[in-house]
Backbone:
């Protein structure tokens, strides 16, 4: 008997029924999807559970409908950059179908795959690892951030501005004398 095919056990009498919770089928589908090479991550279409962090990472991006004998699956995922998207999606569909049919005996009617994006994360990580390895080996020097030094003219202008803004002692005395004279003139006019 082939392990990848569903097992049908024929019995002469029916003992009872077997039902599967949607969550069980979603976990099987999510695990099968994430095992396919080229799937960067399951993406979330923005469900209520995802917004509040209650969706399990395995079932994120997985929606299932389960009947008594059959199931249908909707998957939302992100594909790694550089991988053939069509090939990755077909492999995901086949992997999910086989996993559900093998583990549950349910007939999978359809597996719809929605590609939400392309991930550059793997390439970025590989470039970072290469950079770290090269700097550790001494092949390249780590780049230092350039330090902007002010020009000498700018420093002189700032100093001149500060000096001009501060009143000199003679200016303060002159201002006080002018205020006293105006005050005396105003009093003389009021008395007349």
Residues:
């Amino acid at each position: 008997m082939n392990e990848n095919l569903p097992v049908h056990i024929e019995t002469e009498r029916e003992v009872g029924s077997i039902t599967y919770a949607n969550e069980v089928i979603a976990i099987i589908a999510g695990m099968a999807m994430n095992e396919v090479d080229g799937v960067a991550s399951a993406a979330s279409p923005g469900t209520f559970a995802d917004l509040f962090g209650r969706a399990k990472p395995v079932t994120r991006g997985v929606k299932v409908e389960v009947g008594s004998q059959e199931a249908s699956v909707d998957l939302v995922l992100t594909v790694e950059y550089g991988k053939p998207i069509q090939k990755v999606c077909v492999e995901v569909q086949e992997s999910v179908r086989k996993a559900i049919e093998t583990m549950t005996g349910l007939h999978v009617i359809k597996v719809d795959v929605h590609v939400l994006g392309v991930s550059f994360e793997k390439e970025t990580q590989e470039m970072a690892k290469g950079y770290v390895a090269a700097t550790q080996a001494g092949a390249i020097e780590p780049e230092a951030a350039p330090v902007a030094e002010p020009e000498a003219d700018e420093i002189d202008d700032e100093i001149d501005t500060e000096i001009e803004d501060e009143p000199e002692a003679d200016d303060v005395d002159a201002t006080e004398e002018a205020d006293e004279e105006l005050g005396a003139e105003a009093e003389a006019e009021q008395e007349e």
In short: Residues 169-191 form the longest helix (23 residues).
